[in-house]
Design a protein that fits this description.
Layout: H1 2-30, E1 31-39, E2 48-56, E3 59-66, E4 78-82, H2 83-88, E5 91-98, E6 110-115, E7 120-123, E8 141-144, E9 158-160, E10 162-163, E11 168-169, E12 180-188, E13 191-198, E14 221-223, E15 239-246, E16 258-264, E17 274-275, E18 285-290
Antiparallel strand pairs: 1-4, 1-18, 2-3, 2-5, 5-6, 7-18, 8-9, 8-17, 9-14, 10-11, 12-13, 12-15, 15-16
Length: 291
């Protein structure tokens, strides 16, 4: 009888263990995972994070948030959600968020998005759920000139997207929604200076921080004449680029990851605009897969 009771107890323990194991298996099967890969993405300013959202029709559910190190490594690249719900999602959205203020809905600063095809999605800024702009037909050309301190003075210390022959801007850029702006930059001895932000590429930008006392051209660009002990610099051989920036800006002192044009500055004498080459690789992109 004692052996019978012992055998019965052993069987009960085995059966109980089997049920626990089955519950664990079912629990693991019900948990889905989304993996994220990004290229060309940059580190955000203090207090800001990237957030990843699953799109369900016109609604969104937060999958998680993450930061990016200076070497481009993500703090998190795997995100969990109930598997059935994850597999039923229509797409993915990547936003910029204030770290301590992430709500139940995405912010308006929608960086990249993608629609699922089976178990994968390609994330792009051009997706209709994100910036919704195709930058591929953009063009830009520049001159070196310093109109704000008069003619023939430190002419290689200013860079403008302007054609003096036509008195017009040389930028052809698509219109952005109010959550994004363009910004022009130059790098001098490894230090990057903003020349100004703008929404309308055919008009002057919003900054004359380093300019002289006279008027500049009615186009984006600027002079580097005042306000820094490196000024006036010789921009020949330095680098110029144009970025797309979020509004509000996560870091006003650094360019965001979308770099449409970027190249070394060359001599432009006589003053004829130098065409810049569009940088397809300057547009970040991503890939997600779900299982």
């Amino acid at each position: 009888m004692k052996n019978l009771r012992s055998s019965t107890l052993l069987i009960c323990l085995i059966i109980g263990t089997m049920f626990v194991a089955c519950d664990d298996d079912e629990g693991s099967m019900s948990s889905g995972t989304l993996s994220l890969q990004l290229s060309g993405i940059t580190q955000l300013g203090d207090g800001y994070v990237y957030a990843l959202w699953l799109r369900e029709g016109t609604s969104y559910v937060l999958l998680g948030d993450f930061t990016v190190a200076s070497n481009g490594i993500l703090s998190q690249s795997l995100f969990g959600l109930e598997r059935e719900r994850l597999l039923a999602g229509d797409g993915v959205l990547l936003t910029l968020e204030v770290e301590d203020a992430i709500g139940d809905v995405p912010s308006n600063v929608r960086f990249m998005a993608g629609d699922f095809v089976n178990k994968g999605a390609v994330l792009l800024p051009s997706n209709s759920g994100a910036i919704d702009v195709d930058f591929s037909s953009s063009s830009a050309s520049y001159i070196l000139s310093t109109p704000t301190n008069g003619p023939l003075s430190n002419e290689t210390s200013g860079l403008w997207y302007f054609n003096t022959s036509t008195s017009q801007s040389t930028l052809d850029l698509p219109a952005l929604n109010t959550n994004w702006m363009y910004e022009t930059w130059v790098t001098v001895d490894d230090t990057t200076f903003s020349l100004g932000k703008f929404s309308d590429p055919l008009m002057a930008d919003l900054s004359d921080l380093y300019s002289g006392p006279q008027a500049g051209y009615n186009a984006p660009g600027g002079d580097l004449l005042e306000g820094n002990n490196q000024f006036p610099p010789n921009l020949l051989g330095e680098r110029a680029f144009i970025s797309v920036e979020p509004v509000p800006d996560d870091d006003a002192s650094a360019a965001f990851g979308i770099r449409l044009f970027s190249q070394d500055i060359v001599d432009v004498i006589p003053v004829e605009p130098i065409e810049m080459e569009f940088q397809e690789l300057g547009i970040p992109r991503g890939l997600v897969s779900r299982q």
